[in-house]
Write a structure and sequence with these properties.
Layout lengths: L4 H8 L5 E2 L5 H11 L3 E4 L8 E4 H11 L8 H4 L13 H11 L3 E6 L2 E7 H24 L5
Parallel strand pairs: 1-2
Antiparallel strand pairs: 2-3, 4-5
Length: about 150
């Protein structure tokens, strides 16, 4: 059984680092580096998702425009058509969305309000934890150990 996104957020936390659309790509790079993360949700108020910008988006701009790209606005480089999920989505749902759309970060939105962000790493960790728990349960069952 696949865990719900709300459980993943409960384990990892629901803090999301955002950036405004008028910031430059060098500003975005600084925020990414400061927080050790790979993507920023673009939002003026921290609640409404306007877009998402990842390291990959910035690299593409650099490949096209060279160093001049660093003064480009986030709005010009971000993905504006953002796929999202709700807390009720399952890790399997998220994996399918990420695979289909070749993305690594998925904002979690409830009632048009940003409540978290899940990464492919969060989903993989959750799946590994589930498999470990299942394996331990199976091992306990086979050996006749009482459940913990």
């Amino acid at each position: 059984m696949s865990v719900r996104v709300s459980v993943i957020l409960g384990r990892k936390g629901s803090d999301v680092v955002t950036i405004g659309r008028h910031a430059t790509l060098i500003d975005a790079l600084r925020v990414l580096a400061e927080h050790g993360i790979g993507a920023l949700v673009v939002s003026a108020d921290g609640e409404r998702v306007e877009g998402i910008i990842s390291e990959r988006d910035i690299v593409r701009c650099l490949a096209i425009d060279g160093g001049d790209a660093l003064t480009t606005t986030v709005a010009a480089a971000m993905t504006a058509d953002v796929h999202t999920c709700t807390g009720e989505a399952t890790a399997d749902d998220v994996m399918q969305t990420m695979t289909t759309y070749r993305m690594r970060h998925l904002p979690v939105v409830e009632e048009d309000r940003l409540i978290g962000l899940v990464s492919i790493g969060d989903v993989v960790k959750s799946r590994i934890d589930d498999l470990t728990t299942q394996a331990e349960s199976m091992q306990d069952y086979i050996s006749g150990a009482a459940p913990t």
